[in-house]
Amino acid sequence: MPIRALSDGGGPVPRTGLVAAFPPLTLLVMLGPVAAGLAGTLLPAFGYLPAAGLSTLSLDPFRSLLDWPGLGAATRLSVSTGLLATALALAAVTLLFAGWSGTRAFRVLERLLSPLLSVPHAAMAFGLAFLIAPSGWIARALSPWATGWERPPDLLIVHDQLGLAMVAGLVAKEMPFLMLMGLAAMGQADATRRMRVAQAAGYGRVAGWLKSVFPAIYAQIRLPVYVVLAYSMSVVDVALILGPSTPPPLSVQVVRWMADPDLAMRLTASAAAMLQLALVIAALILWRAGEWAVARLGQAWIARGGRGRAADQLLRPLGVVAGAFSALAVLGGIACLAVWSFAGFWGFPDPLPNGFDMRSWARHGPEAWQATGATALIAGIATALALILVIGCLEAEYRRDRALTQAGLWLVYLPLVVPQIAFLPGLQTLFLTFGLTAGTIPVVIAHLVFVLPYIFLSLGDPWRAWEPRTGIVARALGTSPSGVLWRVRLPMLARPILTAAAVGIAVSVGQYLPTLLAGGGRVATLTTEAVALASGGDRRAIGVYGVAQTLVAMVPFAAALLIPALLWRNRRGMHG
Amino acid sequence: MTPVKSVLPLLAALGMTAPAWSQTDPADWDAVTAAAEGQTVYWHAWGGSTATNDFIAWIGEKAAEEHGVTLEHVKLSDTGDAVTRVLSEKQAGADDDGAVDLIWINGPNFAAMKEADLLFGPFAEALPNWQYVDVDGKTVQTDFTVPTEGYEAPWAMAQVVFMYDTADLDAPLPSAEAILDWAQANPGRFTYPQPPDFLGTTFLKQTLIELVDDNTVLSRPESEADFQAVTAPLWDYLDALTPVLWRQGQAYPATGPAQLQLMADEEIDLAISFSPGEASTAIANNQLQPSVRTFVLEDGTLGNASFVAIPYNSGSKEGAMVVANALMSPEAQLRAQDPAILGYGTVLAMEKLPEADRAAFEALDLGVATLSPAELGDVQPEPHPSWMTRIGQEWIERYGVVQ
């Protein structure tokens, strides 16, 4: 019996009991849908789709995929935008950390982090598109007095062929995520003391950080970086709004084929989804090889011993520019949405609408309010379930005194690395087979797949960083293992738990494809409504939904800051 | 399959499976309305237009008041999503109480669903308000040449018009050739939604009809014609047009409303629309500058009808029929034609209407940018759906993958 085996070891490790069931259960909830969904996509990729009267296995779907003339360009776009966005976001965050961590400017950005994280991708992309278009807000503010433009110039900025607008959007939105992950890693990497040694040895700020701290940090944020890479390569909503369309990146084309009235196109879509999965895997391998190469070069660079003090002059401003770009792009985008939601007619080149009114809010407010209810309900249930499962897992890990292995960590990240479009259509069919035709329950299950890993990731480190001697003291005073959990550990970790819950809610609020496919369209959340409206291009309506969506995702982060402050207003030691 | 079987009784006990299979004869209207009472109808309809969304909400209020039917508008970004949904349900054996009760549909989507036996019917011609429908004057019994056979009920007429900004363009353009000449003189000021978007493909069909001498070949499946020979003038035309399009044809607006927004942003001066009242409605809603007007081509423009259809596995077929009937009512049709609300053409025949309703239609102010029925001129019939599909594919190969 494992329980006996553990208690034989003696020491403070308590018996596992019921919590032993949590890790396998969590894996099932998280990976079961992914595996089943992949199988459900794999079969149509080889020609098996009985509902359309197609049940002979063949390679025809792949042949028709190869016949598509846009395949080369679409594949190239997926890979190039994904790699470029990931590399730029990582480089920008690294520069920011290297040049500014510990300074006041850095703390300002840190404080902006939660709002930046909580803005949904679609809302940000839409705002950014309006910001940078030739007829957009920046051009309007400068026209005609500075640019001489009486009419918007015919310039390809948004939807450009190289996907640079899309890369900019992804970088702006992924930087806050990597920064959050980096901040969590900083504490464990003992960055402050490493920097002190480096600076005492005469290294410049940036060079010292890159040489002494970065290797330790990168080892910890490697998996989040892989998530960014997989996400950027297969994103649909951002690509639709900012990316090229002649042809679009592969993921967008998969969605188009899925929606084609010719039912046989579903087979091509499934084959393309499998190609998308293969591309992501290949890009991850390529990235891994790049890591190895950078490590080799870096070692040689470190060994040369250059102090790199002159580089600070250039690299530090560059870092702050990158940070400001992310913050301005995201917040500026949301400002665009807010202004549009109150706008009367707003033609080029007026810097502001010729009138403000409440018409859009009066028109869409009631429906947006309804959708807010559904959004909050789903996010609340999914987050609560995920918290219970994650805390159960972490507690089991602690009681067995077995840290999560590298393989285990990979499993946690798996749902985030597999492209959504590769397994969600298959998952939909599976739900139907089990009689879950539509409604809130399948949506919650689908959201749980994505909410769980994020909660696991954001709560794991603070949970493990908890001082175990506190538990030993409590045990010595006669508290049971459950008593330690409920009365000592959970209250002490209230702040990270609430932050994890806020992350979970933000993730749930942002989900588009899972909600659409699992909910059978019957579940209208703010995000499904906003993306449906985005296809129509009514900026006022999108403004209302985008602002509502952002608020719903932002309120929990504010609560995560306020509740512990209120709870511990007379416990100074808890404010650490 | 064992786990599935063992789960089913449990789900049934929890009340999660569908109510018993029910189906009422559409001709027995009293029985239909009785069964519809209390049903919830999920209408899957494109949700990209706020004017349409508001109209659907209004129809929902009517259905609730008059027949106790709750209407939920499921806003799609693509009608194909609803087709996928019904298909997935059939694949999984969910043959009753599917997620979709009513679909706004026409053209290739209808042809695909009808051919795959995914539709309930015939029902449309048994609905009480069918008596007012203009079966002789409007294409309400064929959908892109495919006979509807009562499997879908018409609710709006559409006809191609071109919107133009009178501040930038002096006079209407009478033909496809004139559009090309103007575009070459004003590069970057015209575009169309990217095929296979519905409206973008419509532009291609409209241009094809303009350029082809003998249109009868288009009413039969394209496989019966020499596709390359018939469409050659279209590709020559587009080869000349594309370099002078907005962004030199390297990017296109995704949809009709996105194209409308480009016009409001002063990026383009000329745009196609499939709704004669759309410009007036957009002006009333602050979405378009007041200087926009519309025109049709001299040889007439394409027209077709929008329909609603009921999937074979809807659990609320009676409720769906009540909604379909309400959509064809004179009151709803009048409201739909009002440019301040929707600006869609009616499917009804004026001479069949009661006197009071006819007067109300005649009194309707169609809006500043809307042409009168006489000005709209001849309606050209839609080509067979196979043309739309093939032209869309061919366009993608020629212009959709320019990289």
From TrEMBL, chain A:
UniProt xrefs under InterPro entries: MetI-like (IPR000515), MetI-like_sf (IPR035906)
Give the similarity note: Belongs to the binding-protein-dependent transport system permease family.
Provide one Gene Ontology cellular component: plasma membrane
Q: What is this protein called?
A: Putative thiamine transport system permease protein
Q: Where in the cell is it found?
A: Cell membrane
Main localization of the protein described in the UniProt heading: membrane
Membrane topology of the entry: Multi-pass membrane protein
- Is ATP-binding set as a keyword in this record? no
Lineage: superkingdom: Bacteria
CDD domains membership: TM_PBP2 (cd06261)
Domain (ABC transmembrane type-1): give its ranges. 71-286, 372-563
Which sequence ranges are marked TM in the entry? 25-49, 77-100, 121-142, 162-186, 223-243, 263-287, 318-348, 368-391, 403-424, 430-457, 493-513, 542-568
Q: Which UniProt keywords apply?
A: Cell membrane, Membrane, Transmembrane, Transmembrane helix, Transport
Among the GO biological process terms of this entry, one is: transmembrane transport
Cell membrane recorded as keyword: yes
UniProtKB/TrEMBL annotation, chain B:
- Output the superkingdom of the source species: Bacteria
Checking SUPFAM superfamilies in the record gives: Periplasmic binding protein-like II
Question: InterPro entries in the record, alphabetically?
Answer: SBP (IPR006059), YnjB (IPR027020)
What is any Pfam family matched here? SBP_bac_8
Stretch forming the signal peptide: 1-22
UniProt-listed NCBIfam families: PRK11622.1
What is the protein's given name? Answer: Putative thiamine transport system substrate-binding protein
Q: Which organism is it from?
A: Roseivivax lentus
